[in-house]
Amino acid sequence: MPGIEKLPLEEALEDSPQTRSLLGVFEEDTAVMSNYCTQLYEAMQRIYDAQNELSAATHLTSRLLKEYDKQRFPLGGDDEVMSSTLQQFAKVIDELSSCHAVLSTQLADAMMFPITQFKERDVKEILTLKEVFQIASDDHDTAINRYSRLSKRKDNEKVRAEVVEDVYTSRKKQHQTMMHYFCALNTLQYKKKTALLEPLLGYMQAQISFFKLGSENLTQQWEDFLGTIGTSVQNVRREMEEEVGQMQQTIQQMERSCDPLYTPCDPDPAHSPVIRSLTRKQGYLYIRNKTGLVSSSWERQYFFTQGGNLMQQARGEVAGGLVTDLDNSSVMAVDSDDRRFCFQVTSFDGKKVVTLQAESRRECEEWIATINNISRRIYLSENAEELAARVNQTALEAVTPSPSFQQRHESMRPCSKGRTGRASSISSVGSEPSPALSVLSLDALVAPETPIQFDIISPVSEEISGQNKTAAQPGRRSNPFGESGENSPEESEDSILHQLFIVRFLGSMEVRSAESTDVIPETMRQILAARAIHNIFRMTESHLLVTCDCLKLIDPQTQVTRLRFPLTSVVQCSSHQDNKRLFGFVLQAAAGGRGDSRVVCYIFESNNDGEKICDSIGLAKQIAFHSEMDRKAVEKKKEQDKAKEKQKEELSKQRQIEKDLEEQSRLIAASSRPGNPPASDGQFLVLSSSQSEESDPGEEGKKRGESEA
User: Fold this and answer.
1) The domain 498-626: what is its CATH number?
2) Please, what is the Cα angle at 375 between 384 and 340, to 5 degrees?
3) Which CATH superfamily is domain 17-71+79-217 in?
4) What CATH code is assigned to 282-381?
5) What is the annotated localization of this protein (predicted)?
6) How far apart are CA 55 and CA 66, in angstroms?
7) CB 45 within 8 A of CB 199
8) What are phi and psi of 590, to 5 degrees?
9) 447-488: per-residue pLDDT in tens?
10) pTM of model > 0.85
11) What's the alpha-carbon Rg for the chain, to the nearest Å?
């Protein structure tokens, strides 16, 4: 006999759509077999009930046996041995169409009993197990839906324990019911052969024992053939019993080994740690679907990765559908709708965002790590898992300090070795070493043991707060959101450039060198490695507003300015060499009132191209530079105009004085002539307004005027 198709008991716990599809094939085969067995049973019943119709019933049986090849069995339909055997049986039964009525008793025991047992016991057992399995599956879906709706804010220990126990009981019941259902379906594949062959064998043996004169019709050749068929039936039965015993052992072993997997909580991390080197993963997740403008619903689907794509498949579907492209995508853990273990996948262009919920924290972290590995296109390499493990190990070593940072610096000091080690360190995040980096040491770029800030905190918050207190007016209401409120109208209205970008803050750290072009790639490497080590996947999303005066980080929900960077303090800005979505800029700001300055490097991830943001910042600096030059030119021109006006006024004043002096001299000359009468004692010369202002006031001025007259 050829091999028997079987349902895998090991996949009963996973309950994947592929397993359900295979189960549907077996159920369809059982339905076809049940229909065929019913027809065969009715035919043999006619043999037993009516002696007069024995010939017609035998002919019908022969015809049904001949039509076995026309039956479309999903499993075992191309069994040539079975088909040829039934064809030979059909030929013999057709020759024995005139059997005697005395055979009815023997036929009842040898022919009707096996087919009745198969129809009434085996087939009905399959139908009963099917109903029980359907009920257990529905109970498990109800329990897992209730568990997924547990609130993390209002955590009730009693309610959570009841829900976890309900999930445990329903999952265990579903698993055990499914395994027994699979075992019955696998056993049916053997029983359907015996259910067809045993009645026919009993029928033929009854004919041989009854007809002593059967030598004319039943020769020695037919007896050998029947003996061979009997041996085959015994072999099939023996193989079935062995397979049933093995399946029962497998069920017992899996019940013991799978008991911890029934609980949806996180298992012991020591026995089942998070695997971060996966490039393929599958399992059930909840996906959030929008049902309106502000409403959404969650649906449980089977998700799996296929190459660089994330696929989903519902129960009963033959194939899965595309959810999103994972190449160059981003993933992070999020809080959504009061549900736990949620993460969000954003496509490379930022146009599609998918929110998913895992069953446990371990599953959530493994999904995030797998999507990160696929986003880097590690799956395209030959040894994808080894490469993913090597990349994760490199990320761990990138921020794991050596026994001494100075020893690490001394080990990299030789030219050839230092350059090689530095290049390998930078290549872990995909950037190429530059010639300047081989000259600068690690201490020249980033200070040892420099803390990394993963939250948005202003580096000059104390200075700004002090300035706000000084500049605050009496009775002026303070801003409760922490905004400075000192934005000039030129900044908000008269700025030539206004560009808005969606960015996510990765981290910032203080650096030593502000002018080096390698300080931003080195900061990116350390921040990304630190995030990989400490499992930090959450990022703060903001809107970056680029103007000619400053850079602003704005909260997309409240439109509140989180941070404001003056454009004059931005020293440089660049993007990652390989991952163009990563970019950063170096900010040089005064540190308190000590006179020195601190240099901080900020790293972001964008939905758009990071080079566009850097180009926008460069354009803003150019516009600001030219605006400043124009402003200085205008101020200089105004000063020159004022100087000219002042010079003209002084020249006019000097001319007026000279004119007054000439008039005074003329009057003096006219008064000194003999024909003119002398001036009276009380008279004195009246000077012009300009001259009177400069003359001495009082009696001394009068005496001087009289003496001159």
Assistant:
1) 2.30.29.30
2) 110
3) Arfaptin homology (AH) domain/BAR domain (1.20.1270.60)
4) 2.30.29.30
5) Cell projection, Ruffle; Cytoplasmic vesicle, Phagosome; Early endosome membrane; Nucleus
6) 17
7) no
8) -70, 140
9) 556 788 887 754 434 344 444 444 444 444 444 434 444 444
10) no
11) 48
